[in-house]
Amino acid sequence: MKYTKASIVIAIAILSAFQAHAQRPGGIYIYPPGSNGCGDYLEDRKNSANDDFYAAWAWGFLSAYNTFGTEPQVRGRLSKGTILAYLDKHCRNEPLSNVMSGVGKLAKELGEKG
Predict the structure, then answer these.
(1) pLDDT along the chain (114 residues), means of 10
(2) Cα–Cα 20 to 30 A to 93, which of 23, 41, 78, 102?
């Protein structure tokens, strides 16, 4: 899979954020594009060159979610199109939200379905 290296790099970044959270009671730092607001996300989606960036971040987040979370695992392969369609809907419905919130909801939803 051509996104494997990018997913690993992003997962490491997310894991670093989890580590920072453990050391800092004030919260965690979320790396872009996860920290991007929904307005920025929807604007970025007008240029398909940004799609891989968002999908790779989501795959990394989901990998970290499975590795360190206590919730049910997200199983199966999620295509780039599926992830982006979910985020598109999330951001249209919750414009004041951000990308991480959308991917987090996706993880919880898919984890609950087993």
Answers:
(1) 53 49 58 88 95 95 89 86 97 96 93 69
(2) 78
